Structures are given as structure tokens and as C-alpha cells.
Amino acid sequence: MSSSGAVGPWHRGALEVTGHRGARGHVVENTVASFVRAVELGATTLELDVQVTADDQVVVWHDPVLLPGKCLDTAPAVPADPAFAYVGRNLVELTTDQLSTVDVGSRTQAEFPLQEARPGARIPLLTEVLRTVREVSPDVWFLVELKLDPTRPELGVGPAEMVRAVLAAVTAAGAEHRVVLQSFDWRAVAEAGRQAPDLPRAALAVDGLSFSPGSPWLGQIRFEDHGGDLVSAAAALGVGAITPAWATPYGATSTTEGFRLVSDHAFVERAHAAGLAVVPWTVNDEADLELVVGAGVDGVITDYPDRAVRAAGRLLDPPGALGG
């Protein structure tokens, strides 16, 4: 299905239930335990975020700054470490030894009332996640988001360095045939195509925000050259899939005033005609999941994989199967 010749998991003929940061609705995010739970709940693909540390290792974590609402200092990596306390610092400034002392499993998030803590959980290496989860589920795919911000370059490494480090980790874990690279920063998506043309890629976008006139997130792609059409722009980028925010305004649900479904049936049909899969995020409400799945998307990114499995079971015949 890919315009770039690299095929991701979306050719398998069933809805790809993609666990967002693992199963964030059930277990604290981006921990090994959360990824394992997602697979247990029926996820066939796992979405995760990666960043590069001060000692050039790739770790799985979403936020460029260690937030006190998610992270808890325990002890310095070495006695009298001048960088301690680590919480509140930029992740890119810390080494894996320093990060290994930070507890990211003890603090649950109020917006996820079912979320379980995992006290003592640490920020994992990408290689650890890839290897551990594939031992549980060899056929699982990984939708790896390269966390970069072109408006805040001090918060991370550059696109070329990020892609090189991630590719090295993926190769070390033997997961080259189970990884898709994606990013909101389309410079990184293009760089991934140059460094690893056979690896599938996806274009993350928020219609009206990252995908907007003059946006710094689009790299060499110009919004105006494509008449504001996300499908056209993504096809020009050479990716195999679009991973859009599922609705506008950003953060809306189907009951929000002014709600519009981005990945509606017409959008999906146009994307498929251009050779692109459609995998919207982050859809959590059961009614919203049915709306999205019913539009014919190829996958859905959710904090609750079990809910997506149920939605697919209700709407698709046989459960999970997609039409031709």
C-alpha cells in the first residue's frame, strides 16, 4: 500500500489495533509493562516515542522534559552528581545511567482512572522494548515516533542524528522487519527515507496545527503547494501511511461543538487511492472508536486496545477484517 515501496503492517487484512504508549489507559505509559499489557489486550501494533540521551542511547519516553507529574527522583547516579535532581531537566541532557534512577512507574494520571502504577519502573531503552515485547508476541509491529520539535531544537538531537541512532537500535534488536518510523517533524520522516528507504514510514499530522500554512513541521513540503490537502502532501513525502489526529478541533470528541471527523470515509478513500494507509490517533471513547472504524481506516491508535478490539468485533465481519 506504500507509495515509497516499503510496506508496514497494514497489508495484513485486519484492523491494526495500535496501543498508544503501550496501553496507557491501563498501565503507566511507555513502560515495558504497559507494552506487554497492550499485547495481552489485543494490540497488534504498539506506538511508542523515542529520544536520544546525552550518551547517544535511544530511550522510550514521550516528554522532552522529565515532568514531576510522571517522574520521581530516587537517588543520584553517582554520589554528589551536580546534575541531580534530574526531574525537571531536559532528557537530552541526561545519560542513561542518570535516567535509570528515575522512577516513572509510581505516578498515575488522573485522566486515566483505570491506570495502574508500576512502582520502580524505569525509562526503557528502545532495544529492551523491542526484544522483550517480541518474546511475548513475535508478530507485533512497532510504530516508532521520532520525538523532535523544529521550534525547540535545544530539546533534542537533529533529525539525521536521531534517525541514525534509532536505526542502530532497531538493527541491534533484530526488528528491522517489524518497525515503522513516524514523526510530526517531516524533516525526520524524509531523513528516514534517505537513510533507510526500505523501512516503512508514516506522516503524523494535526490538521490546522502541524499541518497548516507556513508550518515549520513540514520540512520541504509546502502546505500551499498541495492546496491544504493532507493526502496530497503525505503522498509527496513518500510515506506509506498517514497518522492524523482523528478529529478537529484538536482534542475533540464526537460530542464536542464544531466536531469534524478528519479520517472520514471520503478521506480514507482518497488516501487509499494514493496508496496510503490511514491510522488515526488517539481514539478512546467506544462510540468514537466505532465512528472511526466504520469509516474504513486501516488501523486505530488508542490508549485502550481492548475497546478497539470490541469496536472491530461489532463492526467488521469477520471481527477485525477489512474490506478489499
Radius of gyration over alpha carbons? Answer: 19 Å
Question: How many individual β-strands?
Answer: 11
Order of helices and strands: EHEEHHEHEHEHEEEHEHEH
SS-based class: alpha/beta
Count of structural domains: 1
Query: What level of helicity do the residues show?
Result: 25-40%
Averaged pLDDT: 95
CATH topology: TIM Barrel
> Helix count, per DSSP?
9
Protein name: Glycerophosphodiester phosphodiesterase
GO biological process, one term: lipid metabolic process
Organism: Georgenia subflava
Pfam families: GDPD
Structure in a nutshell:
This protein has 324 residues and is an alpha/beta fold. The chain has nine helices and eleven strands. It has one domain (15-65, 123-315): TIM Barrel, CATH 3.20.20.190.
Describe the structure.
- It comes from Georgenia subflava.
- With 324 residues, the chain is an alpha/beta fold.
- It has one domain (15-65, 123-315): Phosphatidylinositol (PI) phosphodiesterase (TIM Barrel, Alpha-Beta Barrel), CATH 3.20.20.190.
- Helix content is 26%, strand content 14%.
- The chain contains nine helices and eleven strands.
- The strands form two sheets. Strands 1, 2, 3, 4, 5, 6, 7, 10 and 11 form a nine-stranded mixed β-sheet that branches. A two-stranded antiparallel ribbon has the order 8-9.
- Helix 1 packs parallel to helix 3 and helix 8 (286-294) crosses helix 9 (305-315).
- Mean pLDDT is 95; it is low at 1-5.
